[in-house]
Amino acid sequence: MAAAREMMGQDRGAALFRLADIPDGTARGAVLGDGAARLEVLVHRSGTTVRAYENSCPHVGTPLDWVPDRFMSADGRHLQCATHGAIFRVADGYCLEGPCAGARLRALPVIVHDGWVLLAEA
Fold first, then answer.
1. Considering 5, 80, 83, 111, which has the largest number of Cβ atoms within 10 A of its Cβ?
2. pTM score, whole prediction
């Protein structure tokens, strides 16, 4: 995967996952960089639509998942913060309920290219 990230990163962006590795209706997490450049990302897939957000709750900045790749609410319709239970719309990261109601997750630009989900260059 590192070679794919390096290859893709040269012209399109940083490779996060193969689209096929994100089951429909679920989300996966990835970490890019380290130290001050570290970025935790969550990627949600709905059919061929892919959305990415910084994996950081706007309430206190903790990652949304306590267990790796466990981002979805019990009904599978929303993203949920494991720390305080905040519920976010998948479509735009808007917090519907919880201590950060009205805030949003920070959206990140992604594209799908040759079956890979890529974090697009900003």
1. 80
2. 0.88
* Share above pLDDT 90 across residues of the chain, in percent, rounded to a whole number: 86
Alpha helices by DSSP H, listed for 2-111, are 2-9
Q: Which amino acid is at 25?
A: G
CA separation for the pair 54, 24 (Å, rounded): 20
Residue 76: exposure state from Cβ atoms within 10 A (0-12, 13-18, ≥19): exposed
Give, in order, the Cα–Cα distances in Å from 37 to each of 16, 34, 40, 94, 121: 16, 5, 10, 25, 14
How buried is residue 61: exposed, middle or buried, by Cβ count under 10 Å (0-12/13-18/19+)?
exposed
In which residue are the tokens 């609410």 written? 73
